[in-house]
Amino acid sequence: MARIAYDSEDAAAFAATRHLTGEGLSAWREAITRHIDPRPGMRLLDLGSGTGSWARNFTLWFNGVTAIAVEPAAAMRARAVHQPVLAGDATHIPLGDDTVDAAWMSTVVHHLPDLTAAAHDVRRVLRPGAPLLIRSAFAGRHQGITLFRYFPEAVRVLDTYPSVAAVETAFAAAGFHTAAFEAVPQVTAASLHEAATTLRRKAHTPLQLITDDEYDAGLGRMTAAAKITAGPVVDALDLLVLR
Q1: Is the peptide bond between 185 and the residue preceding it cis, with omega within 30 degrees of 0?
Q2: Closest CA to 161 of 83, 107, 217
């Protein structure tokens, strides 16, 4: 069971505000390209694909690469901008053994109740030596993410997420080792004003899991700061690459 049982309202909020564009994607495209070596005929698994923006990007960026989207939430699948999307989750991936050349998991690992079981099923579908790229916010690593500056109460939610070490340990049990770890910058919004006015609580698990009073206080802080803060919002999420 995921931390959030995504319904249609959650999926709509996610689709409206969590799809990066332009500058927000450029550093991620470069990082992903470095680690997967895209080539025609490659099969790239987007596991926990949400509303499908990453799978769509992969097909646009990488000529001849087949993006295979797998998502457990029916509400997310219904709003997917990439088709088809297969129903499944990280412990029940609907693919055969040794059939995938790389796998991608974006903001997914904190929803997995059994990381070790997930690691074994990902290992099953990946070809030997193929990379798994995990994009995530990890416990203890909130400093580069703007939301936590204005919603400090949400840090306690983040600190219940798996740490980098916990993910490495769980996946090591399935034969993975760490190939790379880096913080990747992304332009999340053109300005803090845009970030504050377009913020959708239901699009962010840490914001859903704080109290209403904490959320209102944080939004007030963010709105006030937006009046005097110029420039784009640049966040840094972590990329953990396992093989």
Answers
A1: no
A2: 107
Averaged pLDDT in 10-residue chunks for the chain of 243 residues: 68 68 89 96 97 96 98 95 97 98 97 97 98 98 97 97 98 98 96 96 95 98 97 97 98
- The pair phi, psi for residue 52, each rounded to 5°, is 85, 10
**C-alpha distance from residue 39 to each of 65, 102, 126 (Å):** 6, 11, 16
Structure confidence at residue 22 (pLDDT):
81
Confidence (pTM): 0.94
Neighbours of 30 (CB within 10 A): 10
Domain boundaries, the chain: 8-138+161-188+235-242
CA distances to 182, 184, 196, 235, 236 from 27, in Å: 12, 7, 23, 11, 10
CATH code, residues 8-138+161-188+235-242:
3.40.50.150
The two counts, helices (H) then strands (E), for the chain are 11, 7
Tokens, residue 211: 């109290």
Sign of the torsion angle spanned by Cα atoms 195, 201, 205, 209: positive
